[in-house]
Amino acid sequence: MLRRPAVYETAVAAGAEKEAAERPENSERPETSADREIEALLAKDNLTAREMSRLARLNRKNVSATRENPPLEIENKTTKIVDDDATSRDSAYWAEVRPIPLTREESASLATAPAAKGKLAVRDTSTVTITIGRRSQPGPASAVNSDSAGMKKNQTSQVIRDLTGGKRWQLSKNSSLKFDGLADLKRFSYNTVDGFVAGTGMSLSARSGKAGRFTIAPSARYAFSREKLMWNVTASLLYDPMHKGNIYIRAGSQSDEFSPSGVNYLVNTVSSLFFRDNIMRLYGSRYIIGGHRIDLVNGLTLDIRGKYEKRDLLTNNSSFSLFRREKPWSENLPDNPYASAAGGYDYEPPVSHRHLSLESSLTWTPRQKYRISDGAKVSAGSDYPTFTLIWRHGYSYNDTLSGSYDLFAAEINHTDMFGAMNQFRWRIRAGSFLNSENVRLQDMHFFNTQSSPVLLNFYEDAFYLKPCYSVSARKAFAEAHLRYTTPTLLLKRLPGLSRTLIRENIGISALWTPEAGYYYEAGYSLSEVFLIGTVGVYAGFTGTTFESAGIRVVLRVD
Predict the structure, then answer these.
(1) DSSP assignments along 83-150, one per residue
(2) Residue 539 belongs to domain spanning
(3) Domain check: are 188 and 248 in the same one?
(4) What is the pLDDT of residues 414-446, one digit of tens each?
């Protein structure tokens, strides 16, 4: 039993007074069943945890029923004030009022502040000097020589660190350059088609107009076994920040996966090198994509893009692994019933061809909240679901092996928050192809299947018990995902776990295609394990028949 705290009664009374003050004098809201239930709960001297939670929900319901729709813009109430006398104070003043002593650059800036028209100095962080033990006091000449030698050594080591680990340079007030470094681990990987892959990238960003921005980001990787340089360039122009008006273009030549959801590079690298199991299936892609995205009105976004791609078949070029070298490698063909001519499926093997398509999507979020930051509109969620309509048209022209088809798809999703820790997330998606006999393997709808027992980064809408690339649709498809997250459900009631930040999740996912029929996965998991991990157990069913079960561990490493 919980005794109702006095501060809670005060808050309830204050809320009632505020509601009465905002209500017109001649309007009286009729008493509802919720009001009577609130009065009954407040009349009790002792409340259980369930009753306290019920009381909070009833109060929220009453407030939402009587309050008018608030404005969609979330105003920034943070005010930055710079004192005009900040640069006119001497070091003695700052030593007295601030607990951290002035740095050498800050002390030097005080003497030159009037000449710099009040601009504060920017600290040079390119060198760091650490002294361990007792330091001798050299004379003036030796001090200069020692400092000069130390600066040269530090500058050399800093250059090496910048080349290997990357660095960001502020070129001017409105432009910056970021280099990812030659030892960029995010671009290091291994697969049996490319072999070992290493690369780097950079991005240049510059302000365009009052609040717009132009960004160009080239990157390059080298496939050592295939002896192929892979590259891509992405350029975008944010020309209307208040409406998210953005023109973008992407081009490149690389190996790509058959499924958009794909396999994590690091997961495939570990699986291939240590277990001789190459999960990833690749084809050669030389492509160019151009598009335009803009908010037509608040909450309504239109995205139109065109794509040209030359697709080529690729084969294995490396047989290296650290262990189990006697095990044969699997071919670079996706584990897909269309590619293997399984019963009930049309035979659609991967072939080299050219692809040209136009795709448009319209996304609508009713009453989309937003805030203004540096002249740009930033979405801030909504209490309503998000609706998406997608149309893609594949064009047919001579000698391409790619016929004309149309894809129509729709999606609705939303995440409801209950308090600080409870969450209910759901997503429903469905679509259909016209002229489906012209749809190539890469253009099918692939469901997100992740078969590795250990995964990196969380997959919101995944099927964990089906092999990668194994479920796709060429004619029609539908899928649904529901997940409820709460801090207290089953295991969190145990003494050892009740005081942790771990949350519990229960969920169910379902898919349907004309060929595969209905497939379901139900799961229970613990998330925020050591703040970075999720551990879950899942069971799969084809129709009403049990198919498989498994455990999945997901680590967040971003």
Answers:
(1) -TTTTTS-HHHHHHH-SSPPPHHHHHHHHHTTTTTTPPPPP--S------S------HHHHHHHHHHH
(2) 175-555
(3) yes
(4) 999 887 788 999 999 999 999 999 999 999 999
